[in-house]
Write a structure and sequence with these properties.
alpha+beta, 2 domains, four-stranded antiparallel β-sheet, 36% helix
Length: 210
């Protein structure tokens, strides 16, 4: 059985960027994670370290029980989340703008590193397993306005029963089509539909594969 990471290694893993898996730590800590197959050193400058798939699984799994330790901080604290629409009093301002820009650039880097052909114009595996968050990040990074609380204005992104598809709704048809154009530019396949009962327009979006 593989020995679980030490408490110090687990803290480094837990602090990894939630989108790219980029790691920060001492040279010794990063080297130890590479040796255990939980991280890799990118071959291109600045030679940052990133979680491997095994490292991501460790990050998403609860810590293994071991010797008594102080209770960990909540896993969700400080973790970036794109606005899917409907949040109460969502974050805004210059700091949020910088955070969203950084997350989007990180996602493009993840595409470059994980897509077989190194392309950044097509969604990667992480986006296919986090459809709502990935679509929301593309829209928020492009400056689209999400709905706030119960306010009808603004976009809302929700999962659908269809595999690899999210629904994007906005009562403003012009804004909805602008969202569709942004997602298409970001590498998603989009199609516009009408709700049979309400006649409301919405967009279905799926990550493009080729």
């Amino acid at each position: 059985m593989t020995r679980p990471p030490t408490a110090a290694q687990r803290r480094v893993i837990d602090a990894a960027d939630p989108v790219t898996g980029r790691l920060k730590g001492t040279n010794a800590q990063l080297a130890a994670l590479v040796k255990r197959g939980l991280a890799f050193r990118h071959p291109r400058p600045p030679h940052d370290h990133f979680l491997t798939p095994a490292g991501h699984r460790i990050r998403e799994a609860p810590p293994e029980p071991s010797a008594p330790t102080p209770p960990p901080a909540p896993a969700a604290s400080g973790v970036f989340a794109a606005r899917i629409g409907g949040e109460e009093a969502p974050p805004s301002g210059p700091a949020r703008t910088r955070e969203v820009h950084s997350a989007w650039q990180g996602l493009l880097e993840l595409r470059r590193m994980t897509n077989p052909d190194g392309t950044t114009d097509r969604p990667c595996g992480w986006e296919r397993t986090h459809l709502v968050q990935a679509a929301a990040l593309a829209l928020e990074a492009a400056g689209h306005r999400p709905a706030v609380g119960t306010d009808e204005a603004g976009y809302r992104i929700r999962a659908t029963p269809q595999p690899e598809a999210v629904a994007v709704r906005d009562p403003d048809t012009t804004a909805l089509r602008a969202c569709a154009a942004t997602l298409e530019k970001a590498g998603w396949q989009v199609s516009e539909h009408t709700e049979p009962r309400t006649a409301a327009r919405y967009v279905l979006a799926s990550p493009r594969r080729v």
